[in-house]
Write a structure and sequence with these properties.
By secondary structure, the chain is α/β, with parallel strands linked by helices. It contains 25 helices and 22 strands. Strand 8 and strand 9 form a beta hairpin.
């Protein structure tokens, strides 16, 4: 993989110093120039880049031009730290830029540089709202320089509409939508006909991909496919990934799986119902055991589910009967409504556990979705046939240049380098941080914890300070809402799909005395602007109602407060009943309760949390590596 090797070699050499004086000088020289002349200057740079894309003098000139275009179009003067971040991104690195430092505008100069080089630029974001917001806000600056930009709309019904977007110099979209369009191109090429309307499923374990070896070559020889057709994506040149740790690491725990639309009633409905009925007959640790992220039947359990009187509908099974029962056990014991999914209009809606967003167009694979439907007593939907799949790791390694931004890259250096060939450039803060991190409060049980949070929020609310309460799950957010109602505290509850309306409510979270409850969607890409009275009262206070599995998620949430020199504070709460303890460190339950009864904890709970989160991060990194290796091995067999 030459592109990846080139990036790795580049990281071994010292990065060129950021030529801030030269960039500022160019920006000052073009300031008197008329708007119409900026396009001429940009076109001249295009011609020069065509002869020498590695010329750092030209890169500095393009960035100076970008600085002036942003100033004119948005009325924003980029800070030096934003230019340092843009330079790192333009050089193919990850810029770790602290929350609130202006990452969105820092992407623009780097994107402009690549666009003027004549390279198609894909700007990948965690969700479609952020893609639309960022593109619309920066479009006037791009247009001043004659650079076109567009946004990918998920499930766009028209292939031509998507083609028009990809024909732009800069394309904004979610990371998974870029991946799905890649798969659609692969399927269209292999089958010789467009399949742009295929449904997308990005969750669940990997499944075997249908092989169409030779189909594309034969169709080309017959003249059915033009030889120069590359698909709607026009190749993979430059990718700039916003919240890069979320897109390339957190989301990479499952592959992108492209499926067809389900047809008719599920033929194996009786098998799903029977597997569900057997759940009550099987005993944990005797008939089945929990293993990693799944369930495995013991020999005794296997005997129970194969007894003669069960009348297993063998003719309609899509997979071994054992797997039906194991998925039914997973649905019963490992998937909870309000945490992993919701019931909506008699359908199952998957919840992204890392953000709390609800996905309306996704389903689990390998029969898990049908097992959850059987658990909830709903109609069993037909499984979708897998057309193609790719891991995020393999997809994003296709780009000749990959870079991005986040506030939480440190701690993931090894994985970023070995998987993607990326190094991290830490960008200093523009102003000193005034955030106060209060000591973790440990309570004996969940009820005591929620009550303590409600009391603390009431006290802070009385001071006129805004409060943001972050919860791990939708059910937790609703539980917190009940406690605040008992305290007669007005609040806003955000726990669904992030859209423009919710983003507006998040913006209001900085008003004096505002109380906002939100799942982790409030932790990334949101900008809470403080009212002047809120600043005087002490700034935004963030409540981490329970540690998340990854420290990076907690840092993102806490980072909503004390941005760009504002005051603020944060506190984490914990109880032995929390999912974090029950699933990752059940051995701490008794020591915590004993210590609380005696009036003093016998351990430093904050340090324990850090160690547990580091363990989870290593475990997830290993899963991602195994997933990528399987994907690469499968791909080598198809080539």
């Amino acid at each position: 993989m030459p592109g990846l090797l080139k990036r790795r070699l580049a990281t071994l050499a010292p990065a060129a110093a950021v030529p801030l004086p030269e960039i500022r000088q160019v920006a000052g020289e073009v300031r008197p120039v008329a708007d119409s002349s900026l396009k001429d200057i940009a076109e001249h740079l295009r011609e020069q880049f065509a002869a020498d894309r590695e010329n750092l003098v030209l890169v500095a000139q393009a960035m100076g031009l970008a600085v002036e275009a942003i100033r004119r179009a948005l009325g924003v003067e980029l800070y030096d730290v934003q230019m340092k971040a843009a330079w790192a991104v333009a050089r193919g690195q990850i810029a770790e830029m602290q929350t609130g430092e202006g990452k969105t505008n820092s992407v623009a100069p780097a994107a402009i540089v690549s666009a003027l080089m004549g390279l198609s630029v894909h700007v990948a974001t965690p969700n479609s709202y952020l893609a639309t917001r960022d593109c619309e806000s920066l479009l006037p600056a791009y247009q001043l320089l004659g650079i076109s930009a567009g946004v990918l709309q998920a499930n766009c019904p028209s292939t031509q509409e998507k083609q028009n977007v990809y024909d732009c110099d800069i394309v904004y979209g979610t990371g998974f939508e870029f991946g799905f369009d890649f798969l659609r191109d692969q399927v269209a090429a292999s089958k010789g006909s467009p399949r742009a309307n295929a449904a997308a499923n990005s969750d669940g374990t990997a499944a075997e991909t249908t092989s169409y070896l030779g189909a594309h070559l034969l169709a080309t020889l017959r003249g059915e496919i033009p030889n120069n057709k590359q698909g709607i994506q026009r190749g993979h040149f430059t990718a700039i990934v916003d919240e890069i740790d979320n897109v390339l690491l957190d989301d990479a725990l499952s592959p992108l799986i492209l499926c067809d639309e389900p047809q008719g009633q599920a033929e194996d409905e009786d098998a799903c119902r029977l597997a569900r009925a057997l759940v009550g007959e099987l005993t944990a640790h005797i008939d089945f055991v929990f293993q990693a992220q799944t369930v495995r039947l013991t020999d005794r359990g296997a005997e129970k589910i194969h007894r003669d009187e069960l009348h297993i509908p063998v003719r309609h099974l899509r997979r071994p009967w054992t797997e039906y029962v194991q998925q039914a056990l997973c649905a019963e014991h490992m998937f909870r409504q309000g945490v992993h999914y919701l019931r909506h209009n008699d359908e199952i809606r998957i919840v992204d556990t890392s953000t709390g967003r609800i996905f309306n167009d996704r389903s689990w694979s390998e029969g898990l979705h049908q097992a959850v439907e059987a658990k909830e007593g709903l109609a069993i939907s037909s499984e979708r046939a897998v057309l193609a799949q790719v891991t995020r790791q393999r997809y994003f390694r296709l780009y000749r240049q990959l870079s991005g931004m986040t506030g939480t890259a440190v701690g993931c250096e090894r994985e970023f380098f070995h998987v993607y060939g990326l190094s991290i450039e830490a960008i200093p803060r523009r102003l000193p941080c005034r955030r106060q991190i209060q000591s973790t409060q440990v309570l004996p049980d969940a009820m005591a914890k929620w009550a303590a949070i409600a009391r603390d929020v009431h006290a802070i609310h009385q001071l006129g300070r805004p409060v943001l309460i972050g919860t791990r799950t939708i059910s937790d957010s609703e539980n917190m809402a009940d406690y605040l109602r008992h305290q007669d505290i007005p609040f806003q509850l955000l726990n669904g799909t992030q859209d423009a309306e919710e983003a507006e409510l998040i913006n209001l979270a900085g008003q004096p005395g505002a109380v906002t409850i939100a799942t982790n969607l409030a932790g990334r890409g949101t900008d809470i602007k403080l009212h002047s009275e809120s600043k005087e009262a002490g700034g935004l206070h963030v409540v981490v109602s329970e540690p998340n599995d990854l420290a990076r998620v907690d840092r993102q949430l806490v980072g909503r407060s004390a941005r760009q020199g504002d005051p603020g504070s944060a506190r984490t709460y914990l109880s032995p009943d929390d999912t974090f303890i029950r699933e990752n460190a059940p051995w701490l339950t008794q020591p915590i309760r004993n210590g609380l009864r005696q009036g003093e904890l016998p351990l430093d709970i904050s340090q324990r949390i850090v160690k547990i989160q580091a363990m989870i991060q290593r475990r997830q990194a290993a899963w991602r590596m195994q997933l990528m290796q399987r994907d690469l091995a499968r791909q080598s067999l198809l080539v």
